[in-house]
Amino acid sequence: MVSAMPELPEVETVCRGLALALEGRRLIRVQTYRAGLRRPFPLDFAERLQGRRVERIARRAKYLTLFLDDGWVWLAHLGMSGRMLVGPADENPPGKHDHLIVETEDGRRVAYNDARRFGLMDLCVTADLRLHPLLAALGPEPLDDAFTPLVLAAALAGRSGPIKTALLDQTLVAGIGNIYASEALFRAGIDPTRSAATIGLEEVERLVPAIKSVLIEAIAAGGSSLRDHRRTDGELGYFQHAFAVYDREGLPCPDCTCAEGVRRLVQAGRSTFYCAKRQR
DNA sequence: CGGCAAACCTGCGAGC
DNA sequence: TGCTCGCAGGTTTGCC
What we know:
By secondary structure, this protein is α+β, with helices and mostly antiparallel strands. The chain folds into two domains: 8-126, Alpha-Beta Barrel (N-terminal domain of MutM-like DNA repair proteins); 149-241, Helicase, Ruva Protein, domain 3 (Orthogonal Bundle), CATH 1.10.8. Helix content is 23%, strand content 22%. The strands form three sheets. It has a four-stranded antiparallel β-sheet. Strand 6 (98-104) and strand 7 (108-114) form a beta hairpin. It is globular and about 55 Å long. The termini are far apart. The mean pLDDT is 92. It binds a DNA duplex through residues 5-7, 10, 38, 62, 77-81, 97, 114-120, 134, 158-161, 165, 168, 170, 177-180, 224, 226-229, 268-271.
């Protein structure tokens, strides 16, 4: 069994699990159980996957890219509640919210399960992948060496909105979501409500390593399992136990025991968690 | 262009 | 036990 929930570390965890199950394998059976997710599946989606061998699986931001042997790429996004469940190919009927099931020549089965159906599937010619409308505008990968303080500082300049909201903008840097935005700002000691443009270079020089370290540690932990995320082997990720502030309203942060504890506020409709004493 | 609210859809936990 | 409300990891659209 496998699955996921989607910020960069969770998608990376799913990517690695899927690679173990599918790379080098031919898809001998593909079945969809509804017309699509947040948008319709591509025309003849199941037929176009059927019989193809999966050569390689990679991740770009929160997207999974499965490279097929006919020069096409299967592009998948997990939305909020999407999982990839890996198991033996048996005769079990599709489970509740299973929307797509593939079976491999060596007897494995991967079910895409997504209660909220915010996920997305598409097909794209490999040569055009970088130009795909969903990928073309994405910012740098935060774990790439090319993602440097100078790059982030340039992206933040001129943005009047809060730094926390800016980190969620996938065109600025791709892959950070609501959990890791709060956690990275805590590590960097930066108040999430500050205007992005006011974050000085020395602060950006703390923020970039903070982003990288929290993502790397979360990947090593198999991601964070709050509600949905599972690893490919069915185990829970455990990084949620390492949260300093996320979902910890009123509790002390690791660095201080101020009476009010971690604060929660809403920015652009999303919860933000931070320590007012530790973050300035 | 920037920023924000709402919408997409279902499940779950808290409170009554 | 059961109902209602609020909230949830993401992205897109539309309005100001």
